[in-house]
Amino acid sequence: STFWLKWGTFEVFKFDYVSRAWERKLELQPPSKFLYYFSQVHLPNNLGVFLLGGTDINSQFSRRTIYFSKYQRFINKPMMTSKRGFATGVFSLHDQSVYALGGQDEGGDLALCERFSITQNKWIPIAPMNQKKNGACSIM
């Protein structure tokens, strides 16, 4: 499944591979508008996607975490320990965790890192990166 979660709106779109068009999914309603510059971390086996941080229209960065469970419903999760947008996000099968690496806040680029333990349902700070970075890409 391929979804587009439109920044600054409540709008969710799904790509239909047969018609080769984006279809708005009115039945899917997030708890609040999607922030700008949030990071997406897709889980394996169509388990869904985590939405990490982002900014509002006033460039206020957020610690917000939302889980789009099995691409069917939105669930608020505990907030990250650091507010950020433009973060690198990745899921690790090894420890069943979502990682938020770097990003940006009102002060600029970040080296801060943390992981969300799915089994413990909480964010845990981890060692920072050696260099501040935002907008990087990752895959495991």
From TrEMBL:
Pfam families according to UniProt: Kelch_1
Annotated keywords: Kelch repeat, Repeat
InterPro entries: Kelch-typ_b-propeller, Kelch_1, Kelch_domain_containing_8
Top-rank taxon: Eukaryota
Annotated protein name in UniProt: Uncharacterized protein
